Amino acid sequence: MDHETVEADPVDFYGFRDLLTPDEQARLAELRSFLETEVAPIADDYWERAECPRHLFRPLADLGMYGAGFPDVAEFENSAQFRGWVSYELARVDSSVATMAGVHSGLAMNSVAIGGSDEQRAELLPRMARGEIVGAFGLTEPFSGSDTARGIRTTARREGDDWVLNGAKRWIGNATWADIVIIWARDVADGNVKGFLVPGGTPGFAATKIERKQSLRAVENADITLTDVRVPEASRLARVRSFRDVALVLRQTRCDVAWQALGNGVGAYEAAVAYARTREQFGKPIGANQLVQSKLVTCLTEITASIALCTRTAQLQDAGTLTDQQSAMAKATVSERMRRVVSLCREILGGNGIQLDYGVARHFADAEAIYTYEGTFDMNNLIVGREITGIPAFV
Questions:
Q1: Which of 232, 246, 334, 351 is the most exposed place for a label (fewest CB within 10 A)?
Q2: pLDDT of 138-171, one tens digit each?
Q3: Is pTM, for the whole model, over 0.90?
Q4: Taking CA 250 as the corner, what is the angle to CA 176 and CA 212, rounded to the nearest 5 degrees?
């Protein structure tokens, strides 16, 4: 593709984006242009109505944003750093859209890529990359969140050439309109966790949208019930043997969520900078005040440190040496810094900080969900704590 000149990003204070190839930078510029013209003008409206902008799903596929990490379906050679910046750009404009895309491209496609047979990969990954199939990831349950490794209650029972699934899932993004939901269930025969490809319209499968959310409102999270849901053996993820394989998926997507947290904070920061330059009090812009400048510097410093951590984590992904504890530290640390950034940005806007029209309120609210999913701050910290001491503190 023709490489356009990519303007320097004032938020990328140390120029980390310069580590990307010219092709990667041009692709990000194309994505940013799409987000600014097609997503930014409608994001607040969809968020306020708690309605998912499903019509954006396919255009993101046309931009090559799904499955970029899988060489057999990627449109061009790219790095984990590039894919991290994609998550950043999506969340900078709308974390709900970032989550919609991340559930599909990260959780669902990674499950197929890591756990699927050659036949399953060949059948599903190209169609998912083209946006022909919408994916969801059913792991969390009503009574099992942080303890999912041991706490899964959904069961799978082998009956001849079929598996029968029974149980419930909660907070499953995209599940109300997904074509395929990856359901994780415990095999009653051997006690191990296995993965199953369950079409959305399967008899006994029901997905109900969770209402009254105050964060990521444009994401259609669902409660799922599975009542004697039958799927053939061919729909079992062939390479999944235990929860360790699920953890491989989570290791990769945790890094994506760290980049998402970073982008969400940047969205609030950019709005706060624009506001500080134009909002006048006592006869001058509030950006002329030392306290406001200090808060903005603190925000940019937190953002810069987060970019550095995310970049190094992505480099480890590319090298194939990333560990669970490294991805856990990245997600916990960056999401905590994001929480501080959006809080300071809301302070800068005063009362206007809680109103959608000024560009901070949505990022401020969405931060709470990002801080929690893909492992809470406490649980991710304990993964690192186990590495430090050799003692697991959560069992």
A1: 351
A2: 999 998 777 776 789 999 999 999 999 999 999 9
A3: yes
A4: 35
